[in-house]
Design brief:
This protein is of the alpha+beta class. The chain is built from 14 helices and 13 strands. About 35% of the residues lie in helices and about 15% in strands.
Length: about 400
């Protein structure tokens, strides 16, 4: 059995014990049984809040995880890195297949995860730096490329800095958590398998989203020698050096593995959880429309987070917006009743689910975003996207803009 104390880093930088996880050894089928209970002192604190507002309400009871594959509630798995980060952990600690289960990974993760939660066997944790200094960015980019090409070619001391740099939810591409005197960032590197300038395309899409009135994480595009790197400012680390707790929409919707979900389901969760539902619903609608027009088909549930601060729960800034770099024309999330690219009629028909009752209001939002995304060529030029890549991606964007053109 694995037992872990779960600590919560508050926005002011204070670390408090939130509760305890206990996960039994796998049974003969490999299933895990896990439980969580809040610490009595945490429950008694005036500023206590539920780590998961839907599945872990503040109560003096034992909560069964009922997730036999992982053994823990989804909010704790949200702390773990994505496929990229898990591969680094497996190589760093020489983990066999059975040792790569979620509870074991949380035990090794400690305080290196995204968000405000820390996992320790015993004792009070120390609040560590949020990643690796930006001075090591070029070194990290080189090591990431080396690891991606051949994980066994990376020495243990090199793996140490890659592990310290951590990773985040959201995909298998190389990335790292870094910081400087101005804040903490998610650094996104080019992949050795890229056939397009993915980093430049994402930088352009994030810039377009800001122009379209979408609340996005701050970004900056850097050159590391001949390589591009996109720095995305972390919204779970605040200026005081503390943390803001995060929970993914995948956890809130209680979905695992393959799922069938749509933007309507996200909107419904916002109504129940958000401290400012009207503003968050309007922002989610904007992001949905933008994803349609720019071709961000990889709009999965791990790309939508709720962020907790002193005001309560709010939709996090957008942080992973990339035009479709593959051949998949269907969105991961349904828009209306379909996953295919919607037309203007469908986009407008969705507006009432986001609290937008007047069609003219929805039309104004669509027209505003359409005008911004129509400037995709200029955005691609600003981020140095090669002409051949711009033509390849632009062809899809043009077709999407035609389907959703409010002037037609």
């Amino acid at each position: 059995m694995i037992k872990l104390d779960v600590w919560l880093t508050l926005p002011a930088g204070v670390v408090v014990k939130a509760g305890m996880l206990a996960v039994s050894d796998p049974d003969f089928r490999g299933a895990l049984q896990g439980q969580f209970r809040y610490d009595p002192e945490y429950l008694a604190a005036p500023d206590a809040f539920p780590l998961d507002p839907l599945h872990l309400p503040l109560a003096a009871k034992i909560f069964d995880a009922d997730r036999p594959h992982s053994g823990v509630h989804g909010v704790f798995e949200d702390s773990l890195p994505d496929d990229w980060g898990r591969r680094i952990m497996a190589r760093r600690f020489h983990l066999g297949r059975t040792e790569q289960r979620v509870p074991y990974l949380l035990q090794l993760l400690g305080d290196q995860g995204l968000g405000a939660l820390i996992y320790v066997d015993q004792g009070k944790p120390m609040l560590m730096a949020p990643g690796v200094s930006c001075r090591h960015l070029e070194e990290l980019a080189i090591l990431a490329g080396k690891f991606e090409a051949d994980p066994m070619s990376v020495a243990d001391d090199e793996l140490s800095i890659l592990f310290q740099a951590g990773s985040s939810p959201g995909g298998a591409r190389p990335k790292a958590l870094v910081y400087d005197e101005n804040g903490a960032y998610l650094a996104k590197f080019a992949s050795t398998r890229d056939h397009l300038d993915v980093v430049g395309l994402e930088a352009a899409a994030m810039d377009l989203a800001r122009q379209a009135g979408i609340k996005t994480a701050e970004t900056s595009l850097l050159m590391l020698g001949s390589r591009k790197c996109l720095l995305v400012k972390r919204f779970d680390v605040n200026p005081a050096g503390g943390r803001n707790h995060l929970i993914s929409m995948q956890t809130l919707l209680a979905t695992d593995g393959y799922y069938n979900a749509g933007y309507r389901e996200l909107a419904e969760k916002l109504r129940h959880i958000s401290a400012a539902p009207q503003a968050d619903l309007g922002m989610l609608y904007r992001q949905m429309v933008f994803n349609v027009m720019v071709g961000n088909t990889d709009d999965h549930l791990k790309n939508f987070f709720m962020l907790h601060d002193e005001r309560g729960w709010a939709l996090s800034p957008a942080f992973d917006l990339t035009p479709n770099i593959g051949s998949n024309q269907e969105h991961v999330l349904r828009i209306g009743l379909d996953f295919r690219v919607p037309d203007l009629k469908t986009i407008l028909a969705e507006a009432p689910y986001f609290g937008i009752k007047r069609q003219q209001q929805a039309m104004d939002v669509v027209a505003e975003i359409h005008e911004v995304v129509s400037q995709w060529k200029s955005a691609f030029n600003r981020t140095g996207v090669p002409e051949k890549d711009a033509r390849a991606i632009g062809a899809d964007i043009v077709q999407r803009l035609k389907k959703s053109d409010p002037g037609v």
